[in-house]
Every structure is written in structure tokens, then in C-alpha cells.
Amino acid sequence: MTKTGIMETAIRDGHQSLLATRMRTEDMIPALERMDAIGYHSIECWGGATFDTCMRFLKEDPWLRLREIKSRLKHTPTQMLLRGQNAVGYRHYADDVVQEFCERSVANGMDIFRIFDALNDTRNLETAFDAVKRAGGHVQGTICYTISPVHTVDRFAAMADRMVEMGADSLCIKDMAGLLSPMMAKALVSRLKKDHPDKLLQMHCHDTSGYSEMAYLMGVQAGADVIDCAVSSLAGGTSQPATETLVAALAEDPENATGLDLVKIAELSDYFRDVRKRYWKFESGLLGVDAGVLQHQVPGGMISNLVGQLRDQGAESKLGEVLAENARVRADLGYPPLVTPSSQIVGTQAVLNVLTGKRYASVTKETKNLAKGMYGETGQPIAADVLKTILGDEAPITHRPADELAPELDEARAQIGDLAENIDDVLSYVMFPQPAKEFLQWRREGGGPERELVAAIVGAMWVGEKQAARQVVQPVAAPVNGDTNTWRSYGRLRQMR
Fold it and tell me: What is the pTM of this model?
């Protein structure tokens, strides 16, 4: 009997999409053992915007978060989102950085790496693929799904072929804006499974347009093996479809049933419903279905970004003009998929074009780099007149962008000095220099994540079905075996549990 796997996204994309990625580790920990017992295919818990947000806003060590999660997931693989040569940052990093980051991610507890490139340029996946394979991780080659005159089933299939040649262990269709229609889901999944019947195929859809549940059902019937969902309390809108809904729907299809227990999932959802209330001020406000995305193709998170930029300029009323200009800029720039960082590049340029009243009169550094080929090859060549306006007489590159980059790790080690206690800290600094430096300095001055996190772990004891009862236990000051991230209080907690 064929079973459909479910990847649970609540502690990564669920709260990233709905709560600005602000969920703290202390609110994840009480749910992890329950999540582990459900029987998910995998649990997405890291990558995407979580790395940045941990240090920038939450004063948490993202590496410690991964270790804490992994220590509680005894039966379920961890999964993350990796931006190819961008790793978890917003620019291309040198190969030595990407290689070390992948190796350390596996060492800290990451199992499955969903690796994508914002432009679907497979050259930007090569280093990450190789590094994850050598470290013993699972490589999931990822297609960023988008709609344009040049993005066809044949083109996506050719990309999948190349990723399999590069060593992908599985494949994923990543629909970040909710644009994958039910019929296209059927067509694309059927083609990929026909071409690569031995490769697990996973679908990742956002519920923005209302398409996703239908796309999942059509995809599963066409052969998709795993679908990404979030428990209902963190589902819908710009997040994923609800886990309970898909589990119930597929239960009536014996060949594709998930076999998961709805009662256990409902209990988990109840827990996260209470957690969500703590983050009310970070709610996106983009709830329910936004069918407009089927026309403007702008992901919900990107819309909130555009609104923020316009509001800062007192021009929020121009959102409609910006959305229309966004489509024109995307066409000018060769139809890049609208996903980080290309979505921010296109969106910011559209805002500038509207506010200045003259297209490309002011061009961001990122737009120039995109035109120059520093992010990779776009879906089709950039319009010649636009290229001339942006670059002047400068010629774009045609080789792999990272070939331009000298090794970075040694210089980063020297720059951060003894604020970095280990190579993980150095990598954090390379990815996000200023936030990481501020975080590491804060930790050095006594505000380290251990004290705060241990108190949360010791206090987080879930009593009953719907609430976490908290006890105050003072963590000891001395580390165990010289590991500054492991405290005796952890052992006491485990004995208590």
C-alpha cells in the first residue's frame, strides 16, 4: 500500500509565513517529542529566514536551536531550506563557506537539505550538493515553480534531469507563491515521476491563492510521495495547507493514505494555537485567500515588504501601481522566480520605478548585480534596452558567479577574533556580520543563550492537553565537560521527564 508522507512545517515555514519567523526555541521544545511520535516523513525546523532571525531579533544561537531540536527528534528526520550558493544568507558566498556550512549543519543534526537557487540556475547548486553528499546528508534538488512564457513543464523537467545528474537523492517542487494550479500539478508531477520513477518527489505549496489543497490532491494522485503541511493553527494564508485537512482527505484514498493519527495532530495544533497568541504583534495580517496573486504573482511575504517600503515613504496608496510595475520589472529582468533574494530585488526596483516616476532612473546595487549575472542566469536574456540602461557599457558575466569569489573563512576568523568560540560562530559571522557580531558580544557579556534557553527548557512542562505549565529552576553556572552549550540543568530535566 502506497503511503503519502507529510513534512510538518510549523516550526519553520509555518511561523515564518505567518509570524515573521519570531517563534522562539523555548516555544518549540515542549512540542518536539509529540511531533516525533506522530510519524511525519520529516520535520522542517531550520534554514530559510530562521538563521538570521535567531540572532537579529531573538538573541538565540541558531546552531544551538538545531542541536536542541535534533536531540528530541529520535525517530523523525530533520529538514531545512538551503539557498544554494547563498546558504542561509542573501548573497553568494565563496565555496569554502558553503562547504563548511553544509558540513557543520550535518554535524549539528541536519538530515535533509532542500537546496534551491532563486533563478533555477543549477550551477549555483553544485557546491552545496557536493558538500552535503560528502558530509552524509540527503540532497533534495528543488525546482522553484513560477509562471512565465519561458517556464514550461519541459524546462522544469530538464532542470530535474540536471539535478539528478548532479546527485540529487530526491526532488521537490517548491511553489512559494501559491501559483501551482491543480492541472499543472498533475502534469508536472506526472512528468517528473515518469522521468525519475526511483526518486522521491516532494511538493511544497503555499495556500495564498487557495490552489494548494487541490494541487496536493492532484499531485498525490499523479505520484507525489510527500507533501508539506502545517498544523491547522499555523496553516492557511501565506503558510501551507492544514495537516489535519490533508490527512483526513487522503484517509479516504487507501492507496495514498498518510496513516497519521488525527487526534495526535489535533493535540499538537492546540499547543501551537496557544503559542501563536504570544506572537500576535507579528501577525502578517494576510489571512485567508488572496486570489490576486494569480494575476500579480507576488508572494504574500513580499507584499508585506512592499507595503512597508511604501509606508516609509508615505506612499502606501501606490501599492496597486507597484504590483503592476513589479510584473513589468520581472519581465524586463528575464522572468526570475519571485523567491528570496530575487523577489526582494524585483520588488524594491519596482518601488523605486514608481516613486521616482521614471523607470530605472535609480537602480539598486542588487538590480545591477542581477543584470550583470552575479546571481546567475535568468529564465530568458534580460531585455537589451534595460540591460543598457542598468549596466551602460559593462558586459555581464557568463560563468558561474561564485567563480568570482575568493575564499572567505580565514579572513572572517581574523575579523571576528575571540568572539567566535568555534567554527559555527565564524559561519554565523560570515552569513550575517553585524547581527552575528552583536549577538556574540551580547553572549560574551553574560546574556548567552544557555541561561535563557535552559530556564525555558526546565520550565516547559506540558500539563494536560492544551497548555504548558512552567516551573522556575535556576541553571547552574558551570558547563558540563567544557561544553558551554550544555548545562547540568539539561540532565536534571531529562531525568525529570
Answer: 0.88
